[in-house]
Write a structure and sequence with these properties.
Elements: H1 8-17, E1 28-34, E2 39-44, E3 54-59, E4 62-67, E5 71-76, E6 83-90, E7 103-109
Antiparallel strand pairs: 1-2, 2-5, 3-4, 3-6, 6-7
């Protein structure tokens, strides 16, 4: 689409709405305070969620929580080894990095 002449109008609009290097952070996933039994995972998006969209938080392939606002937090028990958490913006329960996800992010928590 970037090189398709028919898509140049769409690309120009997108670059004006989501300018690189101007502070746009479509999705940031971070691990906060951690103890031996709990870790706080927070996903933040500056995208305006459509009423049908949710911010989805996963541990591996297990859906932990969906939120209808731009910030979503969950406390979870970390695994014995590195634990991968993921988030996406999409319909409720949309798997991260799937064709239905608008944007996805991953963070790994080590014990």
């Amino acid at each position: 689409d970037v090189l398709n002449p028919a898509m140049q109008g769409v690309m120009a609009t997108a670059s004006a709405e989501l300018p690189a290097g101007k502070g746009c952070q479509p999705l940031v996933l971070s691990a906060g305070s951690q103890t031996a039994t709990s870790v706080t995972i927070t996903a933040v998006t500056d995208l305006q969620l459509d009423p049908a969209e949710r911010l989805n938080l996963y541990r591996g392939t297990t859906l932990l929580r969906t939120c209808s606002t731009g910030t979503c937090t969950v406390q979870n028990e970390p695994g014995p080894g590195p634990t991968v958490y993921a988030a996406d913006v999409g319909a409720p329960g949309t798997p991260p990095y799937s064709a239905q996800a608008v944007v996805s992010a991953t963070v790994t928590v080590s014990p």
